Amino acid sequence: MIVGTRKPFAEIRDLVSGHRKILVVGCGTCVAVCLAGGEKEVAILASQLRIALRLVGQDVQVDEAMAERQCDTEFLVDLGSKKDLGDYDIVVSMACGAGVQLFSDVYDQNLVVPALNTVFIGVAEGPGVWTEKCRSCGDCVLGETGGICPVTMCAKGLLNGPCGGARHGKCEVNPELDCAWVKIYDRMSARDNLKSIEKTLPPRKNSRQTHPSVSIHEAYKRRFDKDEKIV
Ligand code: SF4
Ligand code: SF4
Known about the structure:
Elements: E1 2-6, H1 9-16, E2 21-27, H2 30-33, H3 39-55, E3 61-67, H4 73-82, E4 90-93, H5 97-106, E5 112-114, E6 116-126, E7 129-134, H6 150-153, H7 180-190, H8 195-198, H9 221-225
Parallel strand pairs: 2-3, 2-4, 4-5
Antiparallel strand pairs: 1-6, 6-7
The chain binds iron/sulfur cluster (2 copies).
The site of one iron/sulfur cluster has 15 residues, from helix 7.
């Protein structure tokens, strides 16, 4: 999932300050799960904005809405069929950066600002805790490394580790963290599969990490070859 955290309130307040009709829109998928941009967080932010802006004498209307996914045009169009978005001076999106951008593209007459910082692709470790697991490198090596990502979990992103600085299983860059390559070794050893990490992995194909990237599903490639537009 994509993990986001809410921006400091003062930053959001400054972004919307001076606007009278404000719509706060949450996203029902990743950022709802990580307690940053779901329905409850929308209600909290909307209340905070009402109170803070009225306290400084601004006559504001702050409304709330949810989109199931802001990174999908279909759901944004659905939102627009229920809310008159043209009626608002500014939209505060509580989605990840992708959702904010698609919102701005679909409703380009609206001023759309982010309420979150998008931080990483990760997993839930327990209540309220998420950790990074993937840097979307475009050339996954998990099949070679026992399901532990060296690009993300090793501080140096080494494909062929360890670096020589590991001490007692800890990383030399941050001794509070386990060395990713010691973990990879231990896992492969427990699986009696050390052969898999004896071979040297080739350099990462950085060309696969150009930005902005595009991924087209095999079944849709012909459609793009014909220059058809996505609808
Ligand atoms: S190797 Fe690349 S794609 Fe695979 S988990 Fe790591 S960063 Fe993500
Ligand atoms: S000690 Fe391990 S995790 Fe840390 S930089 Fe070296 S190889 Fe990577």
